[in-house]
From TrEMBL:
<protein>
    <submittedName>
        <fullName>Carboxylesterase</fullName>
    </submittedName>
</protein>
<dbReference type="Pfam" id="PF07859">
    <property type="entry name" value="Abhydrolase_3"/>
</dbReference>
<dbReference type="InterPro" id="IPR050300">
    <property type="entry name" value="GDXG_lipolytic_enzyme"/>
</dbReference>
<keyword id="KW-0378">Hydrolase</keyword>
<dbReference type="InterPro" id="IPR013094">
    <property type="entry name" value="AB_hydrolase_3"/>
</dbReference>
<feature type="domain" description="Alpha/beta hydrolase fold-3">
    <location>
        <begin position="78"/>
        <end position="285"/>
    </location>
</feature>
<dbReference type="InterPro" id="IPR029058">
    <property type="entry name" value="AB_hydrolase_fold"/>
</dbReference>
<dbReference type="GO" id="GO:0016787">
    <property type="term" value="F:hydrolase activity"/>
</dbReference>
Length: 311
């Protein structure tokens, strides 16, 4: 076991990473990453309001992106950001949220969920599921159609979206028209050093996995849980009836193989709408490559629109 995979060390490093991010944001006057994200895709409007959603874990702050169309009760898409289940990076998904609001005609709810090590597993997926249930049940007073609901996320957020879909399957709802899993981690039970990327220096490194995975799920035995590692061979439950899925992997990503395995598992359950691989790209590619981001965001928007019957 590496030093970083020891829970006390992983917790220390994870908290240090959080502090560095906060300090960098303060030095920029709170306008660093947020301003850069808001500046991308300037042709897409940013019409938002803030919302706090009650959950059994803690209140979840969210930013609600409103579509430009005049549909009285548009569909709703719930987005969970990435960050290894440790970093709070909601603003990095601002371009995606604006894109989906504009191109899919949906209300997009970008959720600031609890993160580890302050809130280790199972708090984040449970809170995420609570958020989705609340959104499904409160559309009438909030201005969206909770019966036309999709979920999605990037990286760790994709893992949470998969966990939400699994809980909805097991607990009888709410109905999810589509789950969008964008380069998600779906097998934390397999050591990152046993994973292989199609490039010698992938964005995700084993030391990062040691910190993120251990801070999120300190007990390695619990990483076999179906809400953590649905792509691991130990999870053999029948997924028939789970929400239809769009799964996007990146060619050079360390997580590509587990995404492919889960895509095949969903295909076997009749739940795979499409598995799309982004060629020549690594984990988090859409944060830097505007052209590839636009291409894949447009793909996601088309699938959200088709799944919800958006006008």
């Amino acid at each position: 076991m590496s030093l970083l995979a020891r829970p006390p060390v992983a917790v220390f490093v994870a908290k240090a990473m959080q502090r560095v991010t906060v300090m960098a944001d303060r030095r920029s006057g709170g306008q660093g990453s947020a301003a850069a994200s808001h500046a991308r895709f300037p042709e897409l409007p940013r019409k938002v309001r803030e919302l706090t959603i009650p959950t059994s874990i803690a209140p979840a702050r969210a930013t609600v992106y409103l579509p430009a169309n005049d549909e009285p009760a548009p569909p709703v898409h719930i987005n969970f950001h990435g960050g290894g289940y440790v970093m709070t990076l909601t603003e990095l998904d601002d371009p995606l949220c604006r894109f989906l609001a504009a191109e899919a005609g949906a209300v997009v709810i970008n959720v600031d969920y609890v993160v580890a090590p302050q809130h280790p597993f199972p708090a984040p997926p449970r809170q995420a599921y609570d958020v989705v249930r609340w959104v499904a049940e409160h559309g009438a007073e909030e201005g969206w159609d909770g019966g036309r609901l999709t979920v999605g996320g990037q990286s760790a957020g994709g893992g949470l979206a998969a966990a939400v879909a699994r809980q909805a399957l097991e607990e009888g709802g709410p109905s999810i028209a589509l789950q969008v899993l964008h380069y998600p981690p779906l097998d934390l039970a397999t050591n990152a050093r046993d994973k292989r990327a199609a490039t010698p220096k992938p964005v995700l490194r084993p030391w990062m996995a040691d910190v993120f995975d251990t801070a999120y799920v300190p007990d390695a035995r619990r990483r076999l849980d179906r809400l953590v590692s649905p792509a691991h061979v130990s999870d053999t439950a029948d997924l028939k009836g789970i929400a239809p899925a769009l799964l996007v992997t990146a060619e050079y990503d360390l997580l590509r193989a587990e995404g492919e395995r889960y895509a095949e598992r969903l295909r076997g359950a009749g739940a795979l709408v499409e598995h799309h691989e982004v060629g020549g790209a690594d984990h988090g590619y859409d944060g830097q490559d505007d052209d590839k981001a636009r291409e894949v965001y447009a793909l996601i928007a088309r699938h959200v629109r088709a799944a919800t019957g958006s006008a």
